[in-house]
Amino acid sequence: MKPEQVEAMRDVCLSERFPTYLQDRNEVIIALAYDTGLRAVELVGLDVDYLDLDVGTVYLPSDLQKGSPPPATLSLERETVRLLRRYLRDRWKDVDAVFPARSSPRLHDTFA
User: Residues in domain Tyr recombinase (predicted)?
Assistant: First the structure.
């Protein structure tokens, strides 16, 4: 993706037609996807324990990756860490999944 495309997606996420908590969640999904190259199924499979925001990394276990390669630790940009901190502090549901859904413990990859 080109930076202009990412900015256009962020603008849609931050429109007032979405509640604030969804704006924050959607902005983090876009930032993580752009920053790390994670696929939708990997994003929605992330648990809070996989994040080390003090170091600025996300751990990606083998079982989340296509083809089950070795686990990976990916570096995060400072802005992505800042967005994650804000999102996790203010999110509406306290569960293991980074991206919970209203009716289940985590979002499905068709929503990310």
Answer: 1-112
Cβ contacts of residue 29 below 8 Å, gap of 6+?
A: 43, 99, 112
pTM higher than 0.90:
no
Q: For the segment 66-86, what is each residue's pLDDT rounded down to a tens digit?
A: 887 999 999 999 999 999 999
Question: Rg of the chain's alpha carbons, rounded to an integer?
Answer: 13
Two tokens at 60? 């990606």
CATH of 3-90, one of 3.40.30.10, 1.10.443.10, 3.90.79.10, 3.40.50.720: 1.10.443.10
